[in-house]
């Protein structure tokens, strides 16, 4: 009898809505860990090299045109862009934590203002680095990153608009969209590594000109945005089947994200930390 009662209690807890919410929490937990590993990598790779004046060692991290001899303005723009990326990686996760919103509303508001301001600065700066400084490997991939930058400007505007209007539900939905596109560069790295591990590097080349190399910068923001929209629709839907399907898809996405974070940490981030 007790087993039967326990089973009924468990079935009441494991509703389609609860499974959907759980899949979202799982993905966010993995993404948050990956974001903070990325933050640690940025700080560990660039602060020691910058503090010691060894600016040319920025290029040891494998980036394109990190340091260019004699281009002091471009170098300043580059290092500002990189270090501010650490801030948005850290602050973006904090902005989406419900406990922060509930218990520290003032911190949430002021961090949110700083987050959106820095995100806009990074979007504009990134586009300038790509098309003015030429920090790119090929134009097709650079166009994908540029579109992501423009989406940052759009989503930031709507996030701010609904915050000012006190339309909190719409504000949160746009804030989640903003979080995804702001982390487009992070998604690119994670997607590259997940694809490289899963496929053995199919469609990839050292010059980043293979079919997968070109498609990933677009998939890195289109797929997360699509899944977010489907997740929000499933959460609002009355269809249990829709909720269960999306819970499975999001859980699979969490697995892919975990694989990509593991690969990025092992092969791209940790080897370049200079602490």
Describe it.
Helix 9 packs antiparallel against helix 10. The protein has 10 helices and no strands. Helix content is 80%, strand content 0%. The protein is globular, with a radius of gyration of 20 Å. The longest helix is centred in the N-terminal third of the chain and has 36 residues, at 16-51. The termini are far apart.
Short description:
The protein is an all-alpha fold and 275 residues long. 80% of the residues lie in helices and 0% in strands. The protein has one domain.
Any chance you could write out the topology, listing elements then pairs?
Layout (H helix, E strand, L loop, with lengths): L1 H12 L2 H36 L20 H25 L1 H6 L1 H27 L7 H26 L3 H15 L1 H16 L11 H26 L3 H30 L6
Helix pairs in contact: 2-3, 2-10, 3-5, 3-7, 5-6, 6-7, 6-9, 7-9, 8-9, 8-10, 9-10
- Spatial gap, N to C terminus: 59 Å
Mind summarizing the main beta sheet? none
Q: What is the oligomeric state here?
A: single chain
Which radius of gyration do the C-alpha atoms yield? 20 Å
% residues in beta strands: under 5%
Q: How many extended strands? A: 0
- Domain count: 1
**Class by SSE composition:** mainly alpha
- What portion of residues is helical? over 70%
Overall morphology: globular
**What is the N-to-C succession of helices and strands?**
HHHHHHHHHH
Mean pLDDT: 90
